[in-house]
Amino acid sequence: MTRNVAFGQYYPTGSVIHRLDPRTKLFAGVVFIVCAFLASSYWAYLICYAFLFSVVLLSKIPPLQVLKTVKAVLAIVVVSVLINLFFYDEGTVLFSWWKIKITDGGLLYAGKMVLRIMFLVLSTSMITLTSTPTELTDGLEKIMTPLKYLRFPVHDVAIIMSIALRFIPTLMEETDKIIMAQKARGASFDHGGIVARAKAMLPILIPLFVSAFRRADELALALDARCYNATEARTKMKVLRFTWADLTAFLVLTACLTITALIYAGVIPL
Amino acid sequence: MSIVIKNLSCKYGAKTPFEKLALDGIDLTVREGESVGIIGATGSGKSTLLQHINALIKLQSGSVEVCGIDLTERKPDLKRLRKHIGMLFQYPEYQLFAETVREDVMFGPKNFGMKNEEAEDAARTAIGLVGMDWEEVKERSPLELSGGQKRRVAIAGVLAYKPDILVLDEPTAGLDPAGKKEMLDLITSLRQKTVSTVLTVSHNMDEIAAYCDRVVVLADGKKVFDTTPQELFYRDDLENFRLQKPHVVHIVELLAQKGVVLPHVLTEEALEDALLTYLRERRGK
Known about the structure:
Radius of gyration of chain A: 23 Å
Radius of gyration of chain B: 21 Å
Mean pLDDT of chain A: 83
Largest sheet of chain A: 2 strands, antiparallel
Distance between the termini of chain B: 51 Å
Oligomer: heterodimer
CATH superfamily of the largest domain in chain B: P-loop containing nucleotide triphosphate hydrolases
Low-confidence stretches of chain A: 1-5
Mean pLDDT of chain B: 89
Structural class of chain A: mainly alpha
Strand content of chain A: under 5%
Number of strands of chain B: 10
Order of helices and strands of chain B: EEEHEEHEHHHHEHEHEEHHH
Strand order of the largest sheet of chain B: 6-7-8-3-9-10
Strand order of the largest sheet of chain A: 1-2
Number of strands of chain A: 2
Number of domains of chain B: 2
């Protein structure tokens, strides 16, 4: 697992941000996403980014490490920039060739698009960088608690989620091992056309599926053997506590959201 | 057909909070015909060392040369390297994938460029080497075999491409006592018949004592011992390295405390002989 530390994977530094209640961070996630879509002008983005940057500084995670998470969506960013550049035709034409026209409006719009996508990715990965999967599922479970009254199996869903998250690194490790074993038997995964490559994946996928089912079986058996009952009210080892830091975070987040919304509504002329 | 490793170091997760030095300046030479055991506590770097031999991990610092192929080169011939080495991972039965045993065992030979008939011949021979009946198993699915049989098929899958060096990671893990015995007998017979050079990683000291000529002990990524099993297992400070003694050694030492002094044997058979000789001599007096 230590071999490929995935982008956006928990990065422990023990900072103020890490110690926040996961519910606060989930709320922050929602605020960030809403902000990203509300932000209508470059000034609004400046405010959002300033806020995000201060969160990064507070979290003590190297900013470069955070920036790396954008790599995963780089292709999407590039494509959306190109589409917006070529197909947005309001404003004065800066450059035209054949059927393609690039306008100043398009340029501005494409710039906003980049800022928006990057903001979405950076802000949401700040959540996963600063909280463990367990914390997040605990937080989510707490938030969903009211749904219990609608007969929604909140705890079951939380358990399913945490098991799924728990097994991601295990299956990654397993994949690594199987790849190595097949490589040792002379398999190569980077030769030939698409069909040949897809075929080359079979020696990895089949053992991986077999072992995933085996693990699922064993886990189900182990849960059964311990009389596990997901619907029963269970106590937590780490009780979530709402602290002053959380309250502060809530206030700041609300302020950020309000400012962006006001700019969007045109109350603040930026 | 030897392995020469010089000053090999390896770091996982460099420049992250998960950074870990897995290997720290390892020097190791394995000559043709040797059987070398590598032991050490969990996380001491054994598996990482094995993976370097087959170029499954990128070389970071130091040098590795296997069967004349220098892995410090920019583009070493990996196919040729891996053809030389028969590598068996922990629980190798989990890498079986094909619909029939025949196809699974032929996977390696075909990857290394054998034609169909040639590969099938190789597969038949390999299944014979691991003591299974080709006609009986060739059309069966590897997934419906028993645990011990699956492992044999996995070993056959490695032997089929006729490697020169066998690299085994915990070959007896998860087998019952009878299965363990069979596996050790199999490795011993392979050494006499086909592959003479064997590298074994194991937690099971009895196994290492039984068929290794040389033992290398790793601790925290460093090589701390490189000596014969006799010398290593009869030391007094093994516990400092979180290592246990083989049962045979334990028995010999207990007997010595009771005044029965025997030579430093390592296998059950040798212990039996030593005891018989001892009794005969005593009766003679």
